[in-house]
Amino acid sequence: MNTSFLNELLTAVAERGRALIEPRRERRAATRTLPALITALLSERGEASGAAIAADILATYLGLDAEGRAGAFRVMRDQLGADAEALRVAAQAYLDTPYDTAAGDLHDAATPRRLELLRRLNLAPGGTRALVDMRADLLAELAADRSLAGVDRDFERLFDVWFNRGFLVLRRIDWSSPASVLSQIIAYEAVHEIHDWDDLRRRIDPPDRRCYAFFHPALVDEPLIFVEVALTRDIPGAIAPILAATREPVPPAEATTAVFYSISNCQVGLRGVSFGSFLLKQVVEELARDLPGLKSFVTLSPVPGFAAWLAGVAADADHPLTATAAQAAAALAEPDWHLGPEAAGLGKTVLPLAAHYFLRERSRSGRPLDAVARFHLGNGARLERLDWLADPTPKGLEQSHGLMVNYIYERSEIEANHEAYAHSGKVAATPAVSRLLRALPSIQPAA
Amino acid sequence: MNTSFLNELLTAVAERGRALIEPRRERRAATRTLPALITALLSERGEASGAAIAADILATYLGLDAEGRAGAFRVMRDQLGADAEALRVAAQAYLDTPYDTAAGDLHDAATPRRLELLRRLNLAPGGTRALVDMRADLLAELAADRSLAGVDRDFERLFDVWFNRGFLVLRRIDWSSPASVLSQIIAYEAVHEIHDWDDLRRRIDPPDRRCYAFFHPALVDEPLIFVEVALTRDIPGAIAPILAATREPVPPAEATTAVFYSISNCQVGLRGVSFGSFLLKQVVEELARDLPGLKSFVTLSPVPGFAAWLAGVAADADHPLTATAAQAAAALAEPDWHLGPEAAGLGKTVLPLAAHYFLRERSRSGRPLDAVARFHLGNGARLERLDWLADPTPKGLEQSHGLMVNYIYERSEIEANHEAYAHSGKVAATPAVSRLLRALPSIQPAA
Amino acid sequence: MNTSFLNELLTAVAERGRALIEPRRERRAATRTLPALITALLSERGEASGAAIAADILATYLGLDAEGRAGAFRVMRDQLGADAEALRVAAQAYLDTPYDTAAGDLHDAATPRRLELLRRLNLAPGGTRALVDMRADLLAELAADRSLAGVDRDFERLFDVWFNRGFLVLRRIDWSSPASVLSQIIAYEAVHEIHDWDDLRRRIDPPDRRCYAFFHPALVDEPLIFVEVALTRDIPGAIAPILAATREPVPPAEATTAVFYSISNCQVGLRGVSFGSFLLKQVVEELARDLPGLKSFVTLSPVPGFAAWLAGVAADADHPLTATAAQAAAALAEPDWHLGPEAAGLGKTVLPLAAHYFLRERSRSGRPLDAVARFHLGNGARLERLDWLADPTPKGLEQSHGLMVNYIYERSEIEANHEAYAHSGKVAATPAVSRLLRALPSIQPAA
Amino acid sequence: MNTSFLNELLTAVAERGRALIEPRRERRAATRTLPALITALLSERGEASGAAIAADILATYLGLDAEGRAGAFRVMRDQLGADAEALRVAAQAYLDTPYDTAAGDLHDAATPRRLELLRRLNLAPGGTRALVDMRADLLAELAADRSLAGVDRDFERLFDVWFNRGFLVLRRIDWSSPASVLSQIIAYEAVHEIHDWDDLRRRIDPPDRRCYAFFHPALVDEPLIFVEVALTRDIPGAIAPILAATREPVPPAEATTAVFYSISNCQVGLRGVSFGSFLLKQVVEELARDLPGLKSFVTLSPVPGFAAWLAGVAADADHPLTATAAQAAAALAEPDWHLGPEAAGLGKTVLPLAAHYFLRERSRSGRPLDAVARFHLGNGARLERLDWLADPTPKGLEQSHGLMVNYIYERSEIEANHEAYAHSGKVAATPAVSRLLRALPSIQPAA
What separation, in Å, do the N-terminal and C-terminal C-alpha atoms of chain C show? Predict the structure, then answer.
């Protein structure tokens, strides 16, 4: 299929997306204030100059300091909500005659004007980019001022529609990708830091490495989320060999296993619009098609909540595992314990506790305590193996006493795992993981 | 600026967009019924298999006949609206405490579940295309069954967000465009029919012709709307010389005038999502940049409602122009009147009536009667000239007694014209047009 | 692998290639005559203005009529050969001391200056296109004036290097290809005429049709050679079912056979630079990769020399098959013989003669008489089957009495077939073809 | 103009170009030796398997060590020259009848078989890349073994035709270019070293920086030559401010001057195929079109031969400027002289000597002594200004005592300057430069 006309066609989207909204001082002075501009943008019944006004608003916004921006959000909150009187009438009308039309009218009346504002701001070149950045500002402000939650809700609502996963594009990132994209991979890697360009090249250029990201046509140079993959001969039990600067690459044709060892979000402003599960599934499909020799798709994942949990249990006299946990915690508190001769043996004590952490502990909403676990189990993965002494970096030791785990994506069971997890919170795990529980004192499941 | 990574990146969007939803019989038999599939798509809390279920639903839908499809819309109407009880509670809550949060909750409660269904259906490859086609089906059904209006309202609501003009791309269409795109130009030309590929080539290939269309990244081979442009040395007073098979092209550098002589929508399913005004403005910018010699941007437009209006006036004894109109109508009722020696002279009688039709007659909503006039005046254009005997084709004679008009887009006055029209219904017209009114019996303006 | 930077990079090649050399009258008047311009282009030691002079020369050339162009070729012949004196000296020097350096110097001295001229003309935008067209002019002139053969030899020599098959690109042609490319497919189809755009669409758009062409980066919109392919369930024995306007497409997954039923060259000016064998081999690879279900790659080919040969034998009293041939020729001379009841039966007489034509008759250079046979056999194909009554169009009846044949490309034997043919002229054929010879009177092989 | 089909079309060229020839050990063992493979590639009359054999040869070559490769070149020299006997006959034939046909035959006979070998090797995917690398090997070997000069001459001859400037593409390099391309810019910068990726970004990303390179379609990721440009408000007199890590960028709209401050070749294997002059001319055109505010196009160039020349004159008792030169050389021999208070004043002595160096000194072939001067003057530039203390880096001090110069490209005089230089060796210089000579003892011009 020729995809060429599109290339060019879509290049134009790209150029729109790349356009810069320049702060106001570098443009002709806007003759209207921000509120006047907003009124103008919303009131024009036609759109004689919508794009120009939108660009003026965004440039004015960019020229504001943090306080000024917070002020803009308060304007959105106080003056650009739904029309209170119209909404009251529509609500009453629905209560009186609860038919489809009244529900539709009520939906319209409940739609805040700021939602229309955001949509019209997108007319400016580079508008989507500017709006995502604006939400990042808003989230920062929201931490201090919860009264902006309704404004944020509308941003998220809109982005949820705009960034519909049907519009996202999966692209491989490699050494022939633009430096502008690659510099963001360096900046946003959140799991295992990338130190410099040489380090980056080791992650994406060797034949046994892959990196994939989701992009949106209107944010052309900006990955939304990306995953780093290592092709290996076995399920790995530690991160260091994967990141090693000197290692012999595995010829792709000999690889049997694809290891997802890092997943990172890039856009703060898109918080709440989740792409991760979709990303992994598409990457599995892509890899399976390209490399028919791949048999396993696994993660090598951190356990970010484990150390904190263990400390909590050790300190909680009511917990049935207090004693075991306290003993383990004491051993793990020794300086450089992981370099000592007993380090490997400690696994015998810690791994059963970790199995308990994954399989039996539950949050109030009935989900596993570990955020990474919730992500992969929610996607339909299975907890495959606990890896002792897998990440002895300072961060790894601090968060999880060096523990990592493998989640496995078995295509034949993803749907069933996902449904069981979604409906009943069931954690899919291999028997080897479950068996670890036997080493613990007999207790009742916590959930 | 290198736009290349994007090319490839966006090619992937294109491929998603081009993917075909195949009717069900050609796929593995779906094991679930349409309602069961819809339930599944909406209920999956994660999205273990959203894309596959979405594809199943769309394929099942495609396999239905018209009656089956109407049934599907009724399911959307009856079972996928807002949750009535939740909406009632939220409406009451808002009436009780009309704060921002309650308004937000009410907005959520008023959002029909079918909106979420449509968004999830977009996960299927080719989903956007399929949904636009589905709306075209719905519009056909809606003509017979107005009770589906609420469903249609949700389609339009969603498309309005998805097809935000900030995401659209203007592309020139020429002889090196894909045949798949060009065949749609032939099919959708609604003003001056394109007879075959040779005729098409005459419209887009000569150096003094241009054609531009809007595209959306997710509908890659499908123009949304397009405009045909002729570059000329003067404002044209008739359509035939522009469409003539044999004519000497004007070297672009010598052209002073860009004539928009045809604007056509391509996507029935996007009715109500208007792109036209934005298209013309962008084309004016594009042409002005490419060809600095261009001084005027005008249309050569039909007057589709004129003949019917004239007949109405002639038959309406209460109308102040009855006599004049009746006299004109009689002359225009002669067979082949336009070929006779008095044809040119008839303009003296008819053009003042036409000026009245444009400048003084108003619909109940206070707008000009002519749909094409409303479009261009609403965009900020000015009525520049009435062209007598400009379109003596059967269609032209039938709709407007051969009359055409030029609207002019003067960049310096577009915004003012638009605002005057939007606020007070004022029709911008050159004095030459207004002066024609003097030939009429003195009357009071109709509006 | 990201191929995107390239897209853009190469778009620039495309634009160079698409640039038009405008005839002189539309440019500033060149102030120098053609010979003066040529002298200037060749003499500039640097290249302060090579591209501009080259463009002037090409534009001046384009402004010439046929006689003027012939004059330009005569200038190339008479004044732009090798420097006779320098060549004499170098030839003598080599004869005196036949070493590598002297041979290199002789090579330089023997290089005609027109070769350098052609290379410098390529500096003009659109230069490659213009030079290929210039050669087409030259070939027309050459038919009348053989003294230009040396000039033509240099064009061919240069094109042979420039159009090195390592630089060619195989592209699929389909309904999303540019109309500008497709219109050339219509124009250059040389085997089975394409009547209009609907006919073209039937050749390239259905799922069981493929079309591939070779392109060169500097001739971007211009296919060099293309092949049309039908995917079928069997080796076809006639052309009509393949070209039928109404037929049920074969789902590609069910196809077992790819039929090359038409191969056409597009560029007269590249005569002698053959791409055909390379094209077929690449298409076989491409199809085999895309459609693993394909088992056979065959042609359905005309036999353009058969009728003439048969007439010759029938009239040649010395030929051992005169009587048989004369009898067949008489039957085939009946008007509308192919519609009569004996048509099928005639095959019994004609096919053995055809087998003889392919397997035993040889040209003076020891090759088969049939040009199409020489092409496919030279590529390593095997003569698979003779198809009687396969092409009852007027052209088919006239050239080959309706006979067509299938050549088969068996990947495992291509190299061996090719070598046997190249070294000893051996024609690879299935036993079924060879067995047909038994029906003939016993004779000695002609070769 | 839609350039899109091309994008895709040309992407295929790119992929061919990017393909890797893998060393032999990683492929099926070639069953034939290198000489046998070469014989096979050259002897196949058709091309049943040309591409495969070519790939085998290149892979075998890549598997060789330096000695093995040298052996391959000797095979080319000894066994793949022109056929000596055929050449002798053709040379004699030409001497006997020196007509066009005989000259053509002689040209053919003088064409070494290794030229055909190189052309056929290009059939392998990635062949062009491999051949350019092979020439780099050859050049290294040639330094030790001049008998390979004839082989090298054929490589250059072929590359001269393949890399015809009509096939080259000028592309801007910026921060959205592929990292694979950018890493080569870092590697090949030959004038002012790029230290790391941050340094690179400072050269190509700020709005007042530009970088352009020539590419060839068959070498897709590999720049052939590139130039770095700074946009400034004045002609710069020193390099440090241009390379400074902290500086305020000049808004492009305010720039009046484009400064070419570094030109570097990337492909050793293309030595002798010069692109530089063409590159600068195209960049001037491109910049003039993009930035109409630019008035001057100048270089800031090193003077690599100046220090050596000065030392030579100081030591040459016969030179008319010995005394002046010796005095200057002594002052410049002081450690850290450029930091001392007399540094600026020294210019009064040194600059006249430099003017003499540029304007009056000539090589035996009558050209200026300085290689950089020959390049720019040969392109039609004018020597605009001598910049004292312009490059006080160790390299700058060593090569030119810190001197740099500006050459100016004045579009109106390029052709005249070039011709005067080409015909009579005239050095174009501003009067200010010439006037410096007055400070010197009166002498006769050296040329």
Answer: 53
Helix spans in A122-164 (H): 127-144, 149-162
Q: How far apart are CA C326 and CA C332, in angstroms?
A: 10
Map residue B84 onto helix, strand or coil: helix
**Orientation of helix A149-162 relative to helix A113-121, angle to 10°:** 50
Residue D98, both tokens? 């020196």
Pairing of strands B257-265, B296-299: parallel
The token duo for B238 is 């008739």
pLDDT score of D18: 56
For residues D210 and A207, the answer to whether their CB atoms sit within 8 Å is no
Percent of chain B scored above 70 by pLDDT? 91
Tell me the shortest Cα–Cα distance from A123 to chain B, in angstroms.
4
The three-state secondary structure class of B228 is strand
Which pairing describes strands C382-387 and C404-408: parallel, antiparallel, or unpaired?
antiparallel
Looking up tokens 């108003």 gives B362
* C297 membership: H or E segment, kind and range: strand C296-299
The ipTM, to two decimals, is 0.87
* β-bridge partners, C260: C229, C299
Nearest-angstrom CA–CA distance, D330 and D348:
15
By the 8 A CB rule, do B114 and B80 touch? Answer: yes
Contact between D164 and D214 (Cβ < 8 Å): no
Q: What's the pLDDT score for residue B44?
A: 60
Angle of helix B343-359 relative to helix B306-315, nearest 10 degrees, comes to: 90
State whether A172 and C2 contact (CB < 8 Å): yes
Distances (CA, A) of A350 to A9, A42, A310, A437: 57, 61, 9, 11
Nearby residues of C81 by Cβ (< 8 Å), 6 or more positions away: C112, C113, C114, C150, D100, D103
Is B149 a residue whose pLDDT tops 60?
Answer: yes
Task: Please tell me which of the candidates B4, B15, B119 has its beta carbon nearest to residue A161.
Answer: B119
Give CA D431 to chain center in angstroms. 30
Mutation target to probe the C interface, by most C beta carbons within 10 A, among D13, D172, D286 is D13
pTM reported for the whole predicted model: 0.88
Per-residue model confidence as pLDDT tens digits over A61-70: 999 999 999 9
What span, in angstroms and rounded, lies between the C-alpha atoms of D416 and D406? 19
From A57, A65, A63, A53, select the one nearest A34 (Cα to Cα).
A57
| Beta carbons within 10 angstroms of residue C22's beta carbon | 14
Which of A6, A37, A45 to mutate to test binding with chain B, by most B CBs within 10 Å of its CB?
A6
Cα gap B172→B212, rounded to integer Å: 4
Judging contacts by C-beta atoms under 8 Å, the chain A residues touching residue D7 are 4, 7-8
Whole-angstrom Cα distance, residue D402 to residue D334? 14
- Residue whose token pair is 């939803």: B21
pLDDT of B371-403, one tens digit each?
999 999 988 999 999 999 999 999 999 999 999
Among candidate residues D38, D24, D270, the one with its CA nearest the CA of residue D134: D270
Strand, helix or coil at D271?
coil
What's the CA gap between B385 and B433, in Å, rounded? 6
The dihedral sign for the CA sequence A280, A281, A287, A288: positive
CB within 8 Å: C179 and B180: no
How far is the C-alpha of B213 from the C-alpha of B222, rounded, in Å?
A: 9
Q: Tokens for D435?
A: 């006037």
Residue D142 CA to residue D134 CA, distance in Å, equals 12
Helix-strand-coil percent breakdown of chain D, rounded to 5? 55, 10, 35
- B83 token code pair: 């949750």
Query: Which segments within B25-81 are labelled E, that is strand?
Result: none
3-class DSSP assignment, residue D272: coil
Dig out the tokens for D261 from the structure.
């401050």
Q: What tens digit of pLDDT does each residue of A237-292 get?
A: 999 999 998 899 999 999 999 999 999 999 999 999 978 888 998 999 899 989 99
